[in-house]
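Residues pack. One example:


***
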Amino acid sequence: LALGCLAVLAVLGAVAFRIPKTAAWTSRRLGRPTSMRVWRAAPLAFAALLMVAARVVGGPSGANMVMAALLITSVSLPLAIPWLVHRLGGYLATLRRPHGWLAGRRLTFSPVALARPAVAVGALVFILGSVTGIHERLFSTENEGPVRNDFSLSWSDPQLSDVTWLRKQLPAAKIVLVTDGRRGQSRATFRSCADAADFMDVAEQRACGADGQLAPGVPGQFKQRFRFGVAVDPGARLTGKGISATVLIAGGPAVTDAIWRAANSRLPVVDVSRLSSEPLAPPLYANWFAGIGATGVTLLLIALLHTFGNRVLSLVGEDRRLLRIALDSREVRAVQRWTLLAPLIVAIPLGTATALIFVWAGNELDLAVTVTGLVLLEALLVAGLSAAMALTVSRLQRSWMGPVESGSTPHLP
């Protein structure tokens, strides 16, 4: 539910406000710049602090805090970006270049309307990065620990050569015989501590002590994993003789089927038990999340196309008004280029930063994975898409600016 609200709120923040027909020309009618209060950036700053606090608090409370911050961020980005664009416009208005100065003045007089494409871009970067981090956590197997294939194999009427024969049939597996120790307790017996360490996939320096015996704590780890005790006895006879025999087998995924084929081909009354848990498939809600995330990103892409389309439609009237103040077509295109790209310079880094903070906080709470490389790559892809759209806008502008410049369209509104 929270993820669905996240996608919906982000889209609403990007496209909810209806653009008046003359919104982009407000600077011609206003006597002073639009007042943009700093409170517009306060919710976004609060959301960032909430993410940091959630990482510190941890536990269920931290998880609730970071999810609340996720929703607050999705709503506050459309508020904060116009304020930052307004501040950037004030800086551009101090430049000596005419097109930079004029673009800055336009951004200070009408920051909300002119920043709308940038709002869609910033929201897309943030949602895409957040969804990627959560997706990697849901579909990752790191939380389940390493995937092992540990088995116990028992059979009746063992022969002296059965264990040797089994090792030949399963060359990729590690096999140890379970023997009866003191007080009738069954245990896996190794001829050396190095063999035991190799069987457990543990470094010999960590598993073995100076006396050649297992280090403290290692027998407990062995029993927890294989459900049998363990001993090191260089003089033990590991042949498997008696009424029945049991071996422990550790190996890769290919060993699973090979055990059944090998055991049933020779050994009588075989009993195979899996000691390690089977790797689990991603939970059902992970598949739902993938669909919700894809829907949210798709809606934001549509919002991005919608805002850029509105921008193209507004350019026709704006260009004619700019030409009336003695600018030539090249200067008009420069003004529009600065007006379109300057808000993107604010929105893309801001969306990237908020996404990185979220996955950083969510990683500590097992809600997301710190996928810094993927988030940066997605930001670059969105930046490339925005640049392609801006280039398309410029091409369209050039197509209708030619007739205006050459005088073939003499009627100006």
User: Anything to note?
Assistant: The mean pLDDT is 76.
